[in-house]
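Weekend entry, working from home. Most of the wet-lab plans are on hold until the incubator is repaired, so I used the time to fold the two sequences that have been sitting in the queue since the last round of cloning. Logging both here for the record. First:
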Amino acid sequence: MVSINHHQLHVFYAVAREGSFSRGAQALGISQPATSIQVRELEAALGAQLCYRQRQGIRLTDLGELVYDYAHRILSLSRELETAVDDTLGLRRGVMTIGASSTPGEYLLPRVIGAFKAQYPGLQFSLRISNTATVMQQVLRREVDLGVVGDALPSPETKLEPFADDEIVIVAAADSAIAAKQSISLEDVAAEGFVVRERGSATRRIAEEALAALGVHLTVNMELGGNEAVKGAVAAGLGLGLISHYGITAEERAGMLVRLPVEGWKCVRPLYLVQRKDKHETRAEREFIDLLLGARKAQ
């Protein structure tokens, strides 16, 4: 029977995930030679090559792909075990990893995390912000304990719980010609170009579908990978923007952006908590979810 060293498996997983020995070593905080030795010893234990060394990184063999998949599941369950042990010790210590799409991750969660940390200073948080599609994959692959997203992407393995409503508004630079109009029609909006988020963004998809339902084809002037970049481009006059109303308060107060009162436009979507159905929910996670639900209801 093959005896697999857990540390070697962890090192191989990091190398495979990062796509090279140098980046894997950097992620682990160890030297590249030490990383190479651990992977070679794992290959020796298994009796087969796990990856091809190439000039630009590595390419996994068929067996390497299989080992990588099992390593991911083993290491994820190991982390869940550590969390469950911490849970038995109350809320004095531990790490909660949250995956969040841009809108809740940038504008809602920081204040809730701050309030939670004030009650339980021993707990640590890791907040990973990306788009909704990526967060759902992180939840499915057990890379995060909890997801907070802007769209319902159902899966048999996950449970979704709506916790807040979010309105997507159309914004323009404060000094733009369209911002000076007293009355703005959908036809006016259709004549303008937009600065939008990347594909995979729930904000973009939902807003595009809402505009299409009103007969408006969205013309994309620029595609950017985050809300702050979109707001900056809109403020620079590069097009209209589609942004959560949670995310434009500071820019409105600073006189940089204005939300356009477009006749017939009202786009409200729920925000969701997402978890794996088979994951043990710790006391810390339940307390955090309760705080998040309470914070939204209080607004």
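Second, folded right after the first finished:
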Amino acid sequence: MISSDVSEIAADLAANATLLEIAENLGLSPLLDRGTPFTLAEATTAAGVAEARTLPFLHAMVAAGLLERDAETGPFAPCADLADRRYEAGYLSWSLNANRPYIDHAERFLREPEAAGRQHQRDGRRVAVSSRWIGSHGFYPGVLSEIINRKPRRIVDLGAGAGALLIRLLTELPTSTGVALDLSSGACEEAERAGRRAQVGDRLTVVNRSVETLVDDPGPLDGADIVHAGFVMHDVAQTPEVFAGVLRACREHLADGGCLVITDAVPYVDTPGERAFSALFSYLHESSMGVRLPAENQWCELFRQAGFSDVTSTPLRMPGSRLFVATR
């Protein structure tokens, strides 16, 4: 961000987050993501809104510095630091919008957490979008680097969602194959479509199952050089015996020299750069989602108890996040 005054930074962040969320809801994010200029006609088609309605919003994006335009009738181009601005906006979007039910109904979640959880659920799309924005700089780069450098032949991604991370890996590793496992049938269908669009569909297998089912049927893990799970295992860990079974299944079915790569969070980190967001993340998970995050040393000990010989933990850019690598 350009501003240096704290109040100006806050104002910029709020404005950028709101405009970027509007762009996302209008279907304009693919145009912003491609990093090249786009026309008013392309924006109108993507949004499904008349030019007279689309143009004022694009003008607002230009005025905010999120888009650039050389001439009154010329194409629009994303600003050079759009990725950085969207990463920053992701924290605001996740905190205030993705978790809106927990804020609006805070008292009920404290009084009747189970009933409140059934009645007031988060919008899955808002969670996915804000998590993707944070992940773009907050944890994806570290995970991608770790896995790509190992040059795995077969990758299994647990809780893969729509498969974005795994598809990126298969694109970078043209001789590798992958398995995307997720509980959501909708996410699995989108992963299959995304794989075909990225021309990796012939190397991608999509499995519509929960992570917990691997205890009784570990078939999807067979022969994996890398098993990855991103912000999934803290849910599984709430049932210790099931989590232990999943970890053992991963270890037993990894190829020789294979490893488990886990991106997840640790609670209430007190270092200055992490403490505020880590406190919010930890509190919301425990008070509203019923998830008690394991401490960093507890994560490492659980991997060792499952038989992994070497376990490392590395802080990532997102406050409170850690990259755990456990070698078979």
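Plan for Monday: verify the second prediction. Strands lie at 67-68, 77-78, 154-158, 177-182, 204-208, 224-230, 254-265, 310-315, 321-327.
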